[in-house]
Specification:
Layout (H helix, E strand, L loop, with lengths): L1 H34 L5 H33 L1 H13 L14
Helix pairs in contact: 1-2, 2-3
Length: 101
């Protein structure tokens, strides 16, 4: 009911904030870079290095944190991850045949 709706709303809010931080920062930097034309070759190099860092780092952060938010917000997924960590076994590991142990 009400509690599930609040839980879903908070999850959507967190994912939206992550998206706007990662993408908004990138697009704001692009706009600033286009408005300010550096006069020296050295500052152009620094600007390009920063742009490349922002261009590749922020989408990777978004890709890393999005599933993390989903997993941590869903209790059943959180429990499965805790069990996997606790048992230190792969989710794809086949169970051993009981007679061969």
């Amino acid at each position: 009911g009400q509690n599930e709706a609040q839980h879903a709303n908070l999850t959507i809010f967190l994912v939206s904030v992550l998206f706007f931080i990662c993408n908004g920062t990138f697009y704001n930097y692009i706009n600033l870079e286009n408005m300010q034309k550096p006069s020296t070759a050295d500052s152009r190099g620094n600007t390009k290095a920063l742009l490349m860092t922002v261009k590749f780092t922020l989408p990777l952060l978004n890709a890393a944190f999005f599933p993390l938010i989903i997993i941590l917000r869903k209790p059943s997924l959180k429990m499965k991850i805790k069990e996997l960590i606790k048992t230190k076994s792969s989710p794809y590991q086949q169970p051993a045949i009981s007679g061969l142990r």
